[in-house]
């Protein structure tokens, strides 16, 4: 599945999760499920994230860094403009921090 297709499906899911029966807006918050959907999407998108990190093991505290250029280049040429912008978002940064620690 292409990045655009995954993004489109994710947006559709986020928009339609808050709809109840008959298309009315549900009274419960869609936020927990939305966060789960975004995390699942990020997990699939970043499945090989560890291949693009470096880790300093010489200090008492393990420190890992993402090599953004390497990560971006691992995607197909047509997907890179989206990924290049996506890696600069806060949601991506928080996700990466939780994965590489």
Characterise this structure:
By secondary structure, this protein is mainly α. It is built from five helices and two strands. A two-stranded antiparallel ribbon has the order 1-2. The relative contact order is 0.14.
Strand order of the largest sheet: 1-2
Count of helical regions: 5
Largest sheet: 2 strands, antiparallel
SSE sequence, one letter per element: HHEEHHH
**Counted beta strands:** 2
The helical percent reads 40-55%
Question: Could you give a short description of this structure?
Answer:
The chain is mostly helical.
Give me some keywords for this one.
flat; 8% strand; two-stranded antiparallel sheet; 2 domains; 101 residues; mainly alpha; 2 strands; 5 helices
Secondary-structure blueprint:
Layout: H1 3-16, H2 31-45, E1 53-56, E2 63-66, H3 68-73, H4 80-86, H5 90-100
Antiparallel strand pairs: 1-2
Helix pairs in contact: 1-2
């Amino acid at each position: 599945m292409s990045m655009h297709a995954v993004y489109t499906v994710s947006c559709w899911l986020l928009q339609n999760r808050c709809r109840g029966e008959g298309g009315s807006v549900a009274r419960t918050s869609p936020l927990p499920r939305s966060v789960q959907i975004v995390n699942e999407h990020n997990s699939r998108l970043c499945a090989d994230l560890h291949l693009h990190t470096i880790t300093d093991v010489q200090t008492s505290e393990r420190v890992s860094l993402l090599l953004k250029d390497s990560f971006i280049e691992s995607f197909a040429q047509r997907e890179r403009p989206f990924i290049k912008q996506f890696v600069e978002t806060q949601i991506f940064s928080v996700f990466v921090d939780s994965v590489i620690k």
